[in-house]
């Protein structure tokens, strides 16, 4: 059973639909108490870094997510769910992220912001997941990108700068794009995450 | 590099896809779910559904359509037509849309843009602009091109951006459905002054016109309707043509 954290940060509709379409069982989690019976966790999210951290704290999910990740069970962050794993973001001064990963989140300084549309995710990692993917176009909507301090890039993408569009470290996989909105490439990504991670 | 998007526009009337010229003479094109699936397989980058029915019944049927499509097709879906309130935005998003577009409602009450962006995020607020040329300038129209507003198009878009709209869907009333090509002058002026992506709409009938929307018009995306609905060209052909001409597209 895949659990999707619902902390009031956007529409979960397509994440749920895409996973169900692939034949996976999905449950929406309104509180950490509902984590029982879940074996994979997805943290989606759109909106601002600071507001999302506040919502995670209010719902008790910030500690629960940190514990989940520490326990070694499979975790997938999507969009803001990637950025929240880091320590700080230029979007919300003075707000500390979940800090599961070392690094910061920066704003694009050139081109039109937000980046909206399909861009190429080039495979960087050497894992089974990385090798299963191939370079594919994914759908992005974001103004900020992550700058990890460790070598954990799974995918890289270019938008005025080359940035890390996907990371993988131990049981953590997280991506900046929306696999649930990236047609066949996105469905393949989700399917491979379940099968290989 | 970010690719240029090709977006089929499906005008929906009481649950069926239709197409008219200059917003008139509707013609049945087919079943929305079937068409959505077909365009996704063809490589459409996004889908736009416009409810042209303007009735309570047509609107609800439209939301059913969006709901059905969003369960089988996984690309961004945008919904427009008859969106007037924050509640309308919410119901479209809950039905499975990723974005909403509105034209008349924004001109009559620009605050709707701010409210929508604040609650749901700028990324899902698309300002639809129906522009008509008047002498040397372009004026924004409402009610499907039937009523003139006092807004100059460039000023209107700048203001809407300041309120939080995330994209602009720019339609030329003069060119809509004519196949004479996008209004490149309008498109270029808007694309160069806007800080958000601009989707060109209204008038595509030939491949080179779509190319020009990107090369000369500097658009970020192109909306296509008649050219693909009547199967004169397939989306894949359009993209192959663009790629051959040096435009970066997703294939």
Structural description of this entry:
The complex is a heterodimer of chains A (197) and B (251). In chain A, strands 2-1-3-4-12-11-10-7-8 form a 9-stranded mixed beta sheet, with helices on both faces. Chain A has a 3-stranded mixed beta sheet with strand order 5-6-9, with no helix packed on it. Chain A is an alpha/beta fold and 197 residues long. The mean pLDDT of chain A is 95. The radius of gyration of chain A is 15 Å and the shape is globular. Chain A starts with a strand and ends with a helix. Chain A has 6 helices and 12 strands. The radius of gyration of chain B is 16 Å and the shape is globular. Chain B has a single domain (5-244), classed as Alpha-Beta Barrel (TIM Barrel), CATH 3.20.20. Chain B has helices spanning 32-42, 56-70, 86-94, 104-108, 111-120, 153-163, 184-193, 207-215, 226-229, 235-244, and strands at residues 5-13, 16-21, 24-30, 47-51, 77-80, 99-102, 125-134, 137-142, 147-152, 167-172, 198-201, 221-224. Chain B has 10 helices and 12 strands. Chain B has an 8-stranded parallel beta barrel, surrounded by 8 helices. The chains are: A alpha/beta (197), B alpha/beta (251). The A-B interface holds A 10-11, 13-14, 17-18, 20-21, 46-47, 111-120, 137, 139-141, 158-159, 180-183, 186-187 and B 1-5, 40, 45, 70-76, 93-94, 96, 98, 120-123, 166-167, 195-197, 220-221, 250.
